[in-house]
Write a structure and sequence with these properties.
Chain lengths: 263, 159
């Protein structure tokens, strides 16, 4: 997989490219069209969406993906882009909000009732999302899954898809940028975020000591440190946004009340 | 309605009293974050005295280190937002805040010096040298910070 040549890998590259193009074009069109009826969709959200989708696609197909296949250090940088930075940028782009204001009212109602149904509510529960995200990584690096991923194209694709989706679900379970069915308090989410970050850090040290099968010790050490410090950097952005939202929500409201009473 | 009348008073003692706990916690979290930050930048990155991983580390040491690292990262940022919140409410109480900082930094450093370095063997302060003076300096500074911090927090228990 990733070396080109086989028809299966060409098909995969084609499908991924099509999905990527559809995501970029669809988002842009929805943004431009819905801006005629609503407030203009902000530029930074378009840019975040493009950057987020690009982070994801270069890890799955193309020369970067091929290099990651043979070099654990590049594999780990890819993991940061696909599982952390890409999903974060996508979450900031608020695709669900954009979809809701672009769809006809009846469809939008259908979507929002789907978002309130049990399955999305369960997956977006902070603890479940953290388990899917960090738990999935523990599974990948401490079991033979990592070896299978490099032997079978299908496993490789599924693992990548899981990392992307779990990263996205975890990000939106922490940052409520798009509407969510059930909101959990700041302290609750903060505790889950700390535990998830701790498990991520522990896994990087575990990889440092126990390289996955077939990885030279030196590469594993560099990769593990990338995972540790790179993870810290993305978490820094998430925590900053998280705290900023608390700061905004917790602003003193009494002044607003009193002016409302006065006027 | 009582909270409304409170706001009318232009008296700094009142918001301070209401947000007394927040002042302490903002300082405490900042102290933990600061101690961890100094540990990471100076001892790990600049001096290379500490090691990313030490062969004698126990499993429980890795777990403890993981939690403290993640917690301190969060604490630093959260404490600064709490600080900004206290400022906009005109409830900032610097003496109490500093008490919290010293208490947080001291407790973290003592935990790091005694439990993580010694009991769990995460890593040592420095390698290939006699550790006693380093360990003593490390832990005595921690105790001094805890004592001063406690005094400050105790003396500001009422506005």
């Amino acid at each position: 997989m990733g070396h080109g040549g086989t028809s299966a890998s060409i098909a995969v590259e084609l499908i991924c490219t099509l999905i990527y193009a559809a995501a970029i074009l669809g988002y842009t069109l929805m943004g431009l069209l819905s801006s005629r009826n609503y407030k203009s969709w902000p530029l930074y959200r378009y840019l975040c969406w493009y950057a987020g989708c690009t982070c994801a696609v270069i890890v799955i197909i193309g020369p970067f993906a091929a290099a990651a296949h043979s070099d654990f250090r590049i594999h780990m940088i890819g993991h940061l882009l696909l599982g952390m930075l890409g999903p974060l940028l996508m979450a900031i782009a608020a695709p669900v909000t954009l979809l809701l204001r672009s769809l006809p009212v009846s469809r939008a109602r259908g979507l929002s009732s789907f978002l309130r149904s049990p399955y999305p509510a369960l997956v977006c529960h902070p603890i479940v999302a953290a388990l899917l995200n960090t738990g999935g990584l523990w599974l990948l690096y401490t079991t033979p899954l990592y070896t299978w991923m490099h032997q079978y194209t299908a496993v490789n694709l599924l693992v990548h898809l899981h990392i992307l989706l779990a990263g996205y679900v975890f990000t939106i379970s922490m940052l409520y940028i798009d509407p969510v069915a059930h909101r959990y308090g700041y302290v609750y989410r903060a505790i889950v975020a700390i535990i998830a970050a701790a498990l991520h850090g522990m896994l990087s040290k575990y990889i440092y000591i126990h390289p996955p099968a077939g990885i030279p010790a030196g590469d594993a050490e560099t990769g593990a440190m990338w995972m540790y410090y790179g993870g810290d950097l993305v978490q820094l952005i998430i925590i900053g946004l998280f705290c900023y939202r608390w700061y905004r929500d917790a602003r003193p409201r009494k002044l607003v009340v009193s002016t409302a009473l006065d006027s | 309605m009582t909270s409304h009348t409170r706001d009318i008073h232009d008296d700094t003692a009142e918001p301070r009293r209401i947000y007394s706990k927040r002042n302490m916690w903002s300082g405490f979290l900042f102290g933990v974050g600061l101690a961890a930050f100094i540990d990471e930048t100076i001892f790990h990155q600049l001096l290379h005295w500490h090691h990313f991983y030490d062969l004698s580390t126990t499993a429980v040491g890795l777990v403890s280190d993981g939690f403290f690292h993640a917690f301190s990262w969060f604490a630093t940022i959260a404490s600064l937002f709490l600080f900004a919140d206290l400022r906009r409410r005109k409830a900032l109480w610097m003496t109490r805040w500093w008490g919290g900082v010293l208490l947080g930094a001291g407790l973290f450093q003592l935990y790091d010096g005694l439990v993580q370095h010694k009991l769990m063997g995460i890593h040592q302060i420095r390698y290939n040298v006699d550790l006693t003076p380093y360990d003593l300096t490390w832990n005595i500074i921690a105790v001094i910070m805890i004592i001063i911090g406690s005094i400050l927090v105790w003396r500001t228990r009422r506005a």
